[in-house]
Amino acid sequence: MSSAARAAAATGCFAAAVALCRAPHSPPQPSAVDPEPEPEPEPQPEPEPTPQPKAVRYYDSDFEWSSVVAPGSAAVARHGPFLPPERAALLEVEAASHWDEFYRRHAAGFFKPRNYLLHCFPELAADAGAPHRRTVLEVGCGAGDTAFSLLELNPSLTVLACDFSPEAVATTRSSALYAKHAAAGRCKAFVWDLTSAQLPAELAGLTGRLDAVVSVFVLSAVAPEHHAAVASRLVALLKPGSGVALVRDYGLYDLSQVRYKPGQRIGENFYARQDGTRTYYFSEQGLAQLFARSGCEVVDSRMCTVINRNRKKKLDMKRVFAQGRFRKL
Question: What do you get for the CA distance between the two ends of the chain, in Å?
Fold first, then answer.
């Protein structure tokens, strides 16, 4: 093609483009077939994740209980003679006042969750097939450690919580957790001295009707001469054939027993702390016999051994707890 022809073709294309740009603009018509596009949905907030219970690592066999028997026996032999009878009697009379003082001193920030309880006592775990809400009596509720832990872990439980210290019951009732569960009809706290044969009004009509009685570090605070009567009293509240007594307490030759000094020994395996509160140390056989003689079969009985490590001081502390599950016959 000659130079003249190429120039003419380029001029023609330019003219056509200019004409197209000057033509009147017609807006695009909607298709008769395609529907109007739907508006985009508004963004929705991400759902909050369902809180998951914190994993609990449960230990109950960190060492053989037999390994602490010899050194424990030697330590107990160094504790010296028992306290004079009049001193022991005074501690019994003043027991409630000593515990009241204990809770007055430690009321602020006292509650410590006991999420290990379902590992100790599987009877307290949630059961989707349960035909009714189960009722549990917790004795010696203190600041609510056990009661609140059970209520949070298992929504099918109703917990009646008692303590012989009015100060302890007041501490439990002052908690926001108590307000929450009491409003839902799942919790009630009241005063009851376990050594009293008279049932409180809150337990009237409940003899033989409770699903479980839970005692965690409570019987040890009761003088051993009352243990048999207290156990029988608690077992009487349980349903025959299915009700269970679930007990965890201080075990023989626990570190806290070994550390006592002369002048604190009230009786055999029974001691007075510096603040006037008292502690009894159970053997596995002794705890099992206590409830067997009260009309229960022994489902499980053991000495739980736990090593608590103080990383700062680089110390291993050997703790011993007597634990049992007893079903009413």
Answer: 116
- Rounded to an integer, what distance in angstroms lies between the CA atom of residue 28 and that of residue 5? 38
What percentage of the chain has pLDDT greater than the value 90?
Answer: 72
For 223, the token pair is: 């003088």
The answer to whether residues 159 and 150 touch, using CB atoms and an 8 Å cutoff, is: yes
Q: Taking a C-beta distance cutoff of 8 angstroms, is the pair 303, 275 a contact?
A: no
Residues near 25 by Cβ (< 8 Å), separated by ≥ 6? none
Nearest Cα neighbor of 317 from 265, 254, 272, 266 is 254
Enter the tokens of residue 299.
């489902």
Whether the Cβ atoms of residue 168 and residue 198 lie closer than 8 Å to each other: no
DSSP 3-state assignment of 8?
A: helix
Per-residue pLDDT of 7-22, as tens digits, reads 444 445 444 444 444 4
SS3 256: helix
Three-state secondary structure readout of 201-228: HHHCCCCCCECEEEEECCHHHCCHHHHH
Phi-psi region of 109 (alpha: psi -120 to 50; beta: other; left: phi over 0): left
- Alpha helices for the chain (secondary structure H): 3-22, 69-77, 85-93, 95-106, 117-120, 145-153, 166-173, 176-183, 227-236, 255-258, 284-292
State how far the Cα of 220 lies from the Cα of 194, in Å rounded to an integer. 12
